[in-house]
Amino acid sequence: MRSKGPLAWIRRTRFWTSVFRTGIPKDAREQHAVVLSNVFLHLHPTRVPQASIRFIRTFCLGGISLLLFCVLLVTGVLLMIYYRPTPGLAYTDIQELEAVVPFGQLLRNLHRWSGHAMVLAVIAHMARVFYAGAYRPPREFNWVIGVFLLVLTLFLSFTGYLLPWDQLAYWAVTVGTNMAASAPFIGHLGPFSVVDAGGDARAILLGGEVVGADALIRFYVLHCVVIPVVMPLLMAIHFYRVRKDGGVLARY
Amino acid sequence: MNRVGDSGSEFDRHADGGRSDDVSRRVGDRLRGMDRSAGADRPSGPSRPWRELGEVQPVGSMPDLPSLGPTVPVWPNLLFRELLAVLACLLVLLVVSLLFNAPLEAPADPATTPNPAKAPWYFVGLQELLVYFDPWIAGVAIPLVIVFGLAAIPYLDPSRKGEGVYTFRERPVAVGIFTFGLVGWFVLILVGLVFRGPGWAWVWPWTHGPVHPATEASGSLPNVVGVPLLLAYFVGGGYLLLRWIREWVGLGALARVTFVFLALAFAGVVLKIVLHLAFGLRYFVSFPGSGFSV
């Protein structure tokens, strides 16, 4: 019997069925078909061991990290519309964002707290995977990729930290990047230094000897382009390997 | 002395020899099994229609492998839970973002240095280590060794215990080291964030101003004592530790040396902090000319 009503009619149109080809699954076969035929859902297999979807197995931490990354992408792109990365404009752009742009303060809050939450979620995810011994062969290298993703998450957060161009941002990044000046050999303050302040590791990072306009644009490009492009690549490998190695619980 | 290998701990399950090779063989078997699953010799029928949809065989169903129990369709079982988790997280984010504004201080002013200037919270632990180490150790060497050590974990832990399930009692060495490092990292962050005031002096957060004036540890060992001590620690200690873990089956020579180096480095950092706090030790060895001081 055909269901009635405007929504049911829409779901029967040729356009709708061409987009959602399986519809809401009605039996076991369609339940599997809907996962297999959707590019997002097919990150999952069609069936999983019942024991592996208990909350305590993962605490959803990897998924939460991915969710926060997506929230950061969306809010970050919106923030880019209102933000110009030069010392003269950056700070006032943030002020205007908060005072003038509709929901601007909320947008910035969402981005800020999601960024902190993502660092926490990724660390918690790593701890969970460790305590579950989920780096056992053949997953060793996927753990290594995870460590790289953690480092990139920290860099992502750190490069974003500078962009508001307030005292908090400026001095936190000054403190952080001063470490690079102390690197052995390639930092001008480090042991066995072979470089001067204008050409050491910190100068490469900042584009100068102090945090200034060059540093701001470098951090902006790293934060908005380089790291957000590299991370999804590693994430794709990370997820694909989890999937191919049998999901959360597989044993060999 | 009770050797790790003797005590029935996590490292001795390889004693039956070459479990790592065993694992590779099984993974190979599984990959070949995946090829076979496309063949006609597989049972398929109305009872398991998803076979026809190209499902990869769950590992648990392979011969001579422990079963993972019954399976359920991802739709709706897993996807519903994921949707719930997403909505819960977005709700929390939204509420937090409505209640608390992101900080925005005065515009950046290179001429006005705040005291103290603190790094972002996740790097404050390293900043706190500056109390105990020169910047090239606290800010460069230690973070590099931490990242390297984390990445090396799967190659240094040959145990097969706990795969996807939590096992604390069965692998106390691994769990102990990792937990100590993780807790230590957050303790350093907490100290740096909450208990450090102007000049990085210790403050109680409920008082104004430092209770202890900033003190510089002054006592350094003379190099005549420090250099042999440091050599003895890394060479002699390394030799003893290597002998101690020789019963750990399943680790290659490279992995053993790496493990010993990381263990000595980790213990060395803790030891230096303790000696600094107890005796005001500044350096074991110091070469002001080159800037190399430990």
Task: Note down, in words, how this protein is organized.
The complex is a heterodimer of chains A (252) and B (294). Chain A has 252 residues and is mainly alpha-helical. Chain A has helices spanning 6-12, 14-19, 28-36, 55-58, 61-82, 90-99, 104-131, 140-161, 167-181, 201-206, 213-244; one strand spanning 47-49. In chain A, helix 5 packs antiparallel against helix 7. Chain B is flat and about 70 Å long. Chain B has helices at residues 19-36, 74-99, 121-129, 135-156, 172-194, 223-244, 253-279, and strands spanning 71-73, 286-287, 292-293. In chain B, 19% of the residues are buried. A two-stranded antiparallel ribbon of chain B has the order 2-3. The two termini of chain B are 32 Å apart. Chain B contains seven helices and three strands. At the A-B interface, helix 3, strand 1, helix 5, helix 6 and helix 7 of A face helix 1, strand 1, helix 2, helix 3 and helix 4 of B.
Give the secondary structure arrangement, pairings included:
The complex is a heterodimer of chains A (252) and B (294).
Chain A: H1 6-12, H2 14-19, H3 28-36, E1 47-49, H4 55-58, H5 61-82, H6 90-99, H7 104-131, H8 140-161, H9 167-181, H10 201-206, H11 213-244
Helix pairs in contact in A: 5-7, 6-7, 7-8, 8-11
Chain B: H1 19-36, E1 71-73, H2 74-99, H3 121-129, H4 135-156, H5 172-194, H6 223-244, H7 253-279, E2 286-287, E3 292-293
Antiparallel strand pairs in B: 2-3
Helix pairs in contact in B: 3-4, 3-5, 4-7, 6-7
List keywords for this structure.
heterodimer, A: 252 residues, mainly alpha, Cytochrome Bc1 Complex, Chain C, 2 domains, flat, B: 294 residues, two-stranded antiparallel sheet, 2% strand, disordered N terminus, transmembrane (chain A), Di-haem_cyt_TM (chain A), transmembrane helix (chain A), electron transfer activity (chain A), membrane (chain A)
